[in-house]
Structure formats: C-alpha cells, structure tokens
C-alpha cells in the first residue's frame, strides 16, 4: 500500500507543468551578495536552479513554486538582494513552446534545425553511416537505463592514422535541448562540408568522436507532453527511494561528491548517485575516454544555458591546474571565432570559480583520463532552457565556427 501511495504521488509530480511557478532572477551586486547567492539552497528540493551565479553581477535564476515564494522573498530581503520576477506562470511559457512541437513532428523527419526525437536522431546517424561508409563509423556503446541504444559517431578520413581525437558529447541533462542539436549539427557539417577534407580543413588530421545524446531517457522524458520539460537527471532508480534519477554530471569517479552535490535521491538537480558511475550512461562515456585515452586531446561536453566555456577544475575554485593558461587561451580563441561569426562571446573561466561541483565529466577527462584540453560548453544566452527552435538556424552555424577553431588548435599542437 505504501508503494502504491508513493507511485501515486510521483505520478502527480511527473505531470507537473510548472503552472503558477515563477521564474525569479536574483541580482548580486556586492561580494556579500555574491556569497549569499552562491550559498542559496532549498532543503526541500522544490525550487529548481535554472542557472547558478558565478558571482558579482551574475544572476541566479530559479524556478519557484507558489508555496516557496515567501521563502525566496524573505531570503532576498534578509540578504539585501535585488529580486526580479522574470516570468510569472512559467508553465504557460513551456506549454507555448511544447504545443507547437508535436503536431508538426508527426509528419516531420529529422532536420538539423529542429529539436529531434531520439528515434529521429538514430535514423539520422544511421543514414550518415550508410551514405558515407568510408568516413562515418558507428560504435555501439551499450544501452541506457531504459534500454535505448547508445552509439558513438566516429568521423575520420583516415581511421588508422592514429590522429588526435576530439571527443564531443551532449545532452547529459535532459532539458538542455540545444546541446544535442549542436552535436547533430556538428555531425552534419563534418560530413557534408567538402572543405572539411582538404588540407587545413577540420577533418584533415583529426578524428571527431561525437556522442550526441548521453541521457536519452531524460531527454525523451522532457519531450513527452505528460511529463516534465524541466527534467535534468537520468531516469534510473536506486535502492528503496521512490524518486528517479541521478545527475549525470555529478556521477563521475574523480573527486566524486566532494562539492556541489546532493546525497538525496529526491533532489531534482544534483543527486550524485549512490556511488561513482552508478549510471550506465556515465559508464559508457568513461569507457570512450579510457579506451581512447592515449589519442584523445580534447573533450567538450555540451550543455545549456548561459554562454560559458569552462575548464577544470570543476570540483574546486580554490586553485587551478598548472596548465590553466593553455586551457584558458584555447577557450578564448574559440570564443573569438564564434564572435567573428556574429555570435556572442563565451564567459571563459574555470568551472570551479563559476561554482564548484564535483563528479563532472570535464574533471574526469582531465584528471583521470589525462585528456589535456577539457571543457564544458554552456550554449546560448536568453530564453533559459526553452531556447526557441526558430533560432537554431542562427546560432548553430556560429558555434560551428568555434569547433573549427578547436580543430585547428588541436591539429597545430599535436
Ligand atoms: N552546468 C554544469 C553542471 O552543473 C556545469 C558543470 C561544470 N563542470 C564542473 N565540473 N563543475 O553540470
Ligand atoms: Zn547541463
């Protein structure tokens, strides 16, 4: 009976559409504010952190249920923080965005400038492998918790040449739809753009390994109209808890759980899991890194939102790796390339100086797999997680220029 009751409760939770939730933005403007903003936490886990603040003049964006509005207002008053109610009834915004999708999607197949379903993505990469057999290889990595196939897309003009490898993954967080869209656009451009192959092009002398959707279960969960557009975690279950999911980007086995995590399986954002690599999805990414550690020179994990390009360490902001200048330098030239293409510049800093959070894939690549350049790239600014599909056409080509710069840099150094 207890379990039936729990099942019922989580059912309600799953159907939440954020009706009457308010998107609130807290503006720090002094060092004291900065401290209170980074320390903000909601023990009940009901308030969802949309974007952390990296300090003075960088906002904290949170999604607040009606019952928690007083708590947040009190917190802002006590700490002298400016509070902006950005969006009342956030549920309506999400509904507006998602209502447009399904009707069109029934007829549509894959398009690089759409938010595609997991199935359509699979069809797309299969099509690529069939059409360009000498260039594109699919490697089966295993299955997600709910049994979805995970396939690594390897793009190389000379797979036996022992080229340096650039590994890009995306979509470890379900709601961050722009990230897989970017990964697929990258596959698209690398396979159709003839200039990529000629001497000096993006494919000349580097191999690209792309895993476009690390968390397909969470992603599909955010697409279903009956569930939760703002879901971040995986969809696994552990132990006796009635709650679902682990934060895939807190689950890696390097300095696991030392900072910025929750130990509560019901925490909607940052539950680190019962142990490192408890999730099949993070195990598969780890295996790609470890199996190719010698040749892997760059790792980029795609997320949204906020237009950040951050490098290790992520678990601490107290110090930087001794090679930080090289990491910083490459990130700045990537940001410049995106800016030259008409895009916004990235905020470049170490992940831990933004906000410390342990168990991320970027730290694991850098600290455990020995990948010399490792980044988390937070795509897009504005519109939070509901980045409009119509704008993909504008921003994805801009970001692609950044990837060309990454390719050129790796080629030049290795
Ligand atoms: N938004 C990302 C997350 O919270 C940032 C991760 C940066 N890397 C890190 N190791 N903290 O997962
Ligand atoms: Zn993310």
UniProtKB/TrEMBL annotation:
GO cellular component terms attached to this protein's record: extracellular space
Gene Ontology terms describing biological process: proteolysis
Domain Peptidase M14: 114-410
Keyword annotations from UniProtKB, A to Z: Carboxypeptidase, Disulfide bond, Hydrolase, Metal-binding, Metalloprotease, Protease, Signal, Zinc
Signal sequence, start to end: 1-14
Ranges that cross the membrane: none
InterPro entries with a match to the protein in the record: CARBOXYPEPT_ZN_1, M14A-like_propep, Peptidase_M14
Keyword Mitochondrion: no
Catalytic residues of the enzyme: 378 (proton donor/acceptor)
Cofactors that this protein relies on: Zn(2+)
Molecular function in Gene Ontology: metallocarboxypeptidase activity; zinc ion binding
PANTHER family the UniProt entry points to: FI02848P-RELATED, PROTEASE FAMILY M14 CARBOXYPEPTIDASE A,B
UniProt similarity note: Belongs to the peptidase M14 family.
Name listed for the protein in its UniProt record: Carboxypeptidase B
Organism encoding this protein: Spodoptera frugiperda
């Amino acid at each position: 009976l207890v379990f039936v009751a729990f099942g019922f409760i989580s059912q309600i939770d799953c159907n939440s559409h954020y009706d009457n939730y308010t998107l609130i933005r807290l503006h720090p403007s002094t060092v004291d504010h900065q401290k209170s903003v980074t320390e903000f936490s909601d023990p009940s886990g009901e308030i969802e952190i949309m974007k952390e603040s990296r300090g003075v003049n960088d906002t904290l964006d949170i999604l607040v249920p009606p019952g928690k509005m007083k708590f947040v207002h009190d917190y802002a008053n006590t700490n002298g923080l400016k509070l902006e109610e950005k969006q009342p009834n956030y549920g309506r915004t999400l509904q507006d965005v998602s209502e447009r999708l399904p009707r069109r999607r029934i007829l549509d197949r894959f398009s690089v400038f759409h938010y595609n379903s997991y199935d359509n993505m699979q069809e797309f990469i299969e099509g690529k492998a069939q059409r360009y057999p000498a260039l594109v290889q699919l490697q089966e990595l295993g299955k997600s918790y709910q049994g979805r196939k995970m396939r690594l897309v390897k793009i190389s003009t000379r797979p036996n040449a022992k080229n340096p490898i650039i590994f890009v993954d995306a979509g470890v967080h379900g709601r961050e739809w722009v990230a897989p869209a970017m990964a697929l656009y990258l596959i698209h451009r690398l396979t159709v753009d003839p200039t990529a192959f000629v001497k000096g092009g993006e494919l000349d002398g580097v191999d690209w390994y792309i895993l476009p959707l690390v968390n397909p279960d969470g992603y599909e969960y955010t697409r279903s109209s009956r569930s939760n557009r703002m879901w971040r975690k995986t969809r696994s279950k552990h132990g006796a808890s009635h709650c679902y999911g682990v934060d895939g980007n807190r689950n890696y086995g390097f300095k696991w759980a030392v900072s910025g995590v929750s130990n509560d399986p019901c925490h909607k954002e940052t539950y680190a899991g019962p142990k490192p690599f408890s999730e099949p999805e993070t195990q598969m990414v780890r295996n790609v890194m470890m199996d190719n550690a010698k040749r892997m020179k760059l790792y980029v994990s795609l997320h949204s939102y906020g237009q950040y390009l951050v490098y290790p360490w992520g678990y601490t902001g107290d110090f930087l790796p001794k090679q930080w200048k090289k990491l910083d330098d490459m990130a700045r030239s990537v940001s410049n390339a995106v800016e030259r293409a008409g895009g916004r510049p990235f905020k470049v800093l170490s992940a831990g100086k933004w906000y410390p959070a342990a168990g991320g894939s970027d730290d694991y690549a850098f600290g455990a797999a020995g990948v010399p350049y490792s980044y988390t790239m937070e795509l897009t600014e504005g519109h939070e997680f509901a980045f409009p599909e119509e704008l993909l056409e504008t921003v994805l080509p801009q970001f692609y220029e950044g990837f060309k710069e990454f390719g050129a840099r790796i080629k030049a150094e290795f």
